[in-house]
Design brief:
- The protein is of the alpha+beta class.
- It has one domain.
- The protein has a four-stranded antiparallel β-sheet with strand order 4-5-1-6. It has a two-stranded antiparallel ribbon with strand order 2-3.
- A hairpin with a 2-residue loop joins β7 and β8.
- The chain is flat, with a radius of gyration of 18 Å.
Length: 174
């Protein structure tokens, strides 16, 4: 089995329910659905998505309050935990050896994370990469997608940057 080192974060929040909810929402993101009547539709559903820190960072959930990230993302995630608004918190951070198939799957999952394409409109990074092959894509959308892909490529923790090579082959404009 091919293994590689990543950074594991294990935490225990020691705060009330509302602070805990805020913490998890800022870390993992959340979706909110509201049903409101309109003049044309008695039940109109509005869906709002709020991305969290780990939306764009490849990660492996190892347990409820335990996850692993690539070493390249460790400082960014560590900064989130250092925010004094999460105190009191018990945090343990350590290096770990992770199987290559789990790391590859985390990269694939990051491609399926929601990406803002316009106000209130989301797509996945995978779909946005497919659009890069077309010539009629707005320049802002291309640059937003390119930045997101470049960030993901920097986080690549697959063996031999296998994921990066595959993604670059799919996106001809990168």
């Amino acid at each position: 089995m091919n293994l590689k080192v990543g950074k594991v974060f294990s935490f225990d929040l020691r705060c009330g329910a509302s602070r805990r909810t805020q913490f998890y929402r800022e870390l993992f993101g959340y979706t909110n659905r509201v049903v409101r009547p309109t003049k044309r539709d008695p039940e109109r559903t509005y869906t709002f998505f709020k991305p969290g820190l780990l939306r764009r960072i490849p990660h492996i959930k190892l347990g409820s309050p335990v996850f692993a990230v690539p070493l390249a993302a460790a400082e960014e995630v560590g900064g989130f935990f250092k925010d004094p608004k999460w105190n009191p918190i018990e945090l343990h951070v350590f290096d770990a050896v992770l199987p290559s198939d789990a790391r590859e799957q985390s990269m694939e999952n990051a491609l399926d994370a929601p990406v803002l394409i316009a106000r209130g409109q989301y797509s996945t990074l995978r779909e946005e990469v497919k659009l890069l092959k077309h010539d009629n894509v707005e320049p802002d959308r291309v640059s937003r997608t390119t930045r997101a892909v470049e960030y993901l490529l920097r986080m690549d923790w697959t063996d031999g940057k296998k994921f990066s090579k595959k993604l670059k082959a799919q996106a001809c404009k990168l």
